[in-house]
Amino acid sequence: MTVSEPRRDRRSTGGRPRVVVLGTGGTIASSADSATQLHDYRVTAGVEDMFTAIPELHALADLRAVNLLQLDSHAIDSAALLTIARRVAKELADPEVDGLIVTHGTDTLEETAYFLNLVLKSTKPVVVVGAMRPASALSADGPLNLYNAVRVALAPAAHGKGVLVVMNDRLFAARDVAKAHTTAVEAFEAAEEGCLGRIACGGIHLFHAPLRLHTAATSFSLDRLAELPMADIIFDHQGAGIHHYHAAIDAGARGIVLAATGNGSLSPSARLGAELAARAGVAFVRSSRVGRGIVTPSFDDETLGMVAAGSLNPQKARILLMLALTQSHELHHLRSCFERY
Ligand code: ASP
């Protein structure tokens, strides 16, 4: 489906669509000491500064800036995640708001986007956007990323597609996207599912729609979420020890996600760790460190009470596991969540 015209909700009344841009920090809001310095920068800009840098934005919609956080995204914790989600939900509930953009650091952008995808009860477009180069850089990518994000939020086809991520002229489903390169402008990809669409030469071209449950169709609600349960990720490797599993369980983790080798294979310690978790009533999800492909159910899941993560990478599996655990620890419930979301 190709959508070349932004949606104009108020066209019939001569009004303009209203878009909220909610800032959380990150490279897109950062500056360095010179235009050629592309690392070691600081978060300095507010959303209004971005508006000033991109005057073309104001031709698209009536924009409202919300400076919520000024964090590097590797500093975002569960409390900050809930703060972001609650404020996004509040803004979307305003009938005057037609769409919302979250500007965010790229390091953990996929986790926030997926969390929002699972808890927001709205079909209004929400687009999460970042930048790989600071705003002060030569060929900074943030301005066009933000401009494209607003255009996507105004596209009729963006409605009901779940939370979207726009980076480097591509449009991704929050569930599928991951940061796959440490520095490249084309850092984001959806290795297994592919991107949802592309922004090219002024057109917004959508190729397909997400199939898994999201936003208004999910059973997760922010209303009953005072806090998120603790869930840890443990990276498996040759010669892995058992101590990480003891530490996670002793620290109060309610869930463990294994970044396993291959198709969710268990090292001897990971197997012992799964047994420890089962005895302690701690949920155990097998994801993979591989980064592409699907972790499929295995016979071990039955004997050790584990959950296969499917195509969710470890950090995404952790987001879903935390939300699933707010509803029940039952194994069939957890498995159902990983099959449906
Ligand atoms: N460290 C930055 C962050 O995640 C990287 C970025 O935004 O690109 O906040």
TrEMBL record:
PROSITE patterns on file: ASN_GLN_ASE_1, ASN_GLN_ASE_2, ASN_GLN_ASE_3
InterPro entries recorded: AsnASE_II, Asp/glu_Ase-like_sf, Asparaginase/glutaminase-like, Asparaginase/glutaminase_AS1, Asparaginase/glutaminase_AS2, Asparaginase_C, L-asparaginase_C, L-asparaginase_N
Keyword annotations: Hydrolase
Enzyme class, broadest EC rank: hydrolase
Name this polypeptide is given: Type II asparaginase
Domain L-asparaginase N-terminal: 18-209
Protein's UniProt keywords contain Cytoplasm: no
Species of provenance: Aromatoleum petrolei
